[in-house]
């Protein structure tokens, strides 16, 4: 990455955050016909900008190649639907949105969130780059356009009179290769007194909870509040509130407005979080460049467990086929010699194969048929939900394995503290 530059400031990137070796695109699932063809692998090497402390990857593939036909559907997680339903209720109650307002969501996926505003009779518009996913939202009666978002799309919407009273972007900011174009576009379509909210994984949690597997090529950037505040301020957008969320292993929900808007006022949570990040060292380069050792230790522990289990004749399968799981498996060199197969609730992933490792993906009922000794939970951020759904593995003495933040074995019945957490 000798010639690469920070995608916000344009300064050269030299400092390594973590090097996870070579890996395929995390959502490039394979058909049976593709298994005997060559796969593309790219460096999965994250750097930290010395001037902005923004962690980022080099771009190897265009967004068109990554997102035009996508395999991630938000509606397949019950806990995620519960999360966004609570968000819509809270935003209506807090800001009084009604049928006279316009809600716009960028990267609206299959309509998972906008459906709840539709139920309240509030006009919505989804902007979704993946054609296959946008069509599902449209078929469900959720107005959606199939476009990548940036200044060009924003100008088209302005001409059509589509301006947002509430502009939403959940787990999209990390996927944006051109941050300045994206945020400038949001500035354009936000009404003068409009409100913007965005959710994204918090790099403080990534570092403290050893979440290295959330790094993959589809995630171009990883944000602290300190970094994102600078980026938004450069586009004359002011962050006036922030929430720390438990989703995706620990996320932030930021609230922004035009910097010349009188209200809402600045919440105390803004200064509190900035103080928290500074106390954790997120304002110093040293905090970032020592992260890689944690990942190496987890790799060794996970491989040691798998080798011991196999030496005892135990069977191991996976649960889930998330992008983070593909980073973990490829970095650790875990393939079909360790994991018999994995399962996923998403029918669009079933009967396909994981990129790089070529592990088969089945529907969840496969676990009842084969009765494995261990189930490795790849979407560890949903472990409580998954353990409840799959608690029946205790009938034959099966146990769960959770790899992040450290390798842990959970027997059935599930510990009460996990059930309470869910």
UniProtKB/TrEMBL annotation:
SUPFAM superfamilies (UniProt xref): S-adenosyl-L-methionine-dependent methyltransferases
Any single GO BP term: methylation
Keywords: Methyltransferase, Transferase
Domain C-methyltransferase stretches: 247-405
Domain Methyltransferase putative zinc binding stretches: 6-67
Coiled-coil residues: none
GO molecular function, one term: methyltransferase activity
PANTHER family for this protein: BLL5978 PROTEIN, TRANS-ACONITATE 2-METHYLTRANSFERASE-RELATED
Protein name: C-methyltransferase
Record organism: Nostoc punctiforme (strain ATCC 29133 / PCC 73102)
